[in-house]
Write a structure and sequence with these properties.
Blueprint: E1 8-14, H1 19-42, E2 51-57, H2 62-67, E3 75-80, E4 83-89, H3 94-120
Parallel strand pairs: 1-2
Antiparallel strand pairs: 1-3, 3-4
Length: 121
């Protein structure tokens, strides 16, 4: 996976032996589907429609964990155009997780629009 080719990457760092991670597995999968739909429907111009979910077992890939500065699991990280814009550590209810991710997407979308407006003036 090359996250610079993918516009939006939703990454889930987990460990199979962690009870909070086991609890978050289904929630992450459902939120990832919601996120893909949301991006395609609401943010096509600014962020594109490219979305990728990445599930990282920290026992299998400790280097990626270190690269992204992850100290604890479960951690969900949102990257946009190669930049980590949101990192959430710990278990959360589905609606809270989805709300935080959508808020970060909207914030980044507004920043992108402002930058394009400033360059066009």
């Amino acid at each position: 996976m090359d996250e610079y080719q993918s516009t939006v990457v939703l990454r889930y760092f987990h460990a199979p032996w962690s009870l909070p991670c086991v609890q978050m597995n289904r929630i992450f999968s459902e939120v990832a589907v919601d996120c893909a739909r949301y991006i395609q429907k609401n943010l096509p111009e600014s962020l594109g429609t490219s979305f990728e979910k990445d599930i990282v077992n920290i026992d299998d890939d400790p280097d990626l964990m270190a690269t992204h500065g992850i100290d604890h699991v479960p951690t969900i990280q949102l990257s946009i155009q190669g930049y980590d814009v949101l990192t959430l550590t710990g278990a959360r209810p589905k609606l809270a997780l989805r709300s935080e991710i959508f808020s970060a997407l909207n914030t980044h979308d507004l920043s992108s629009r402002a930058q394009r407006s400033n360059h066009g003036s």
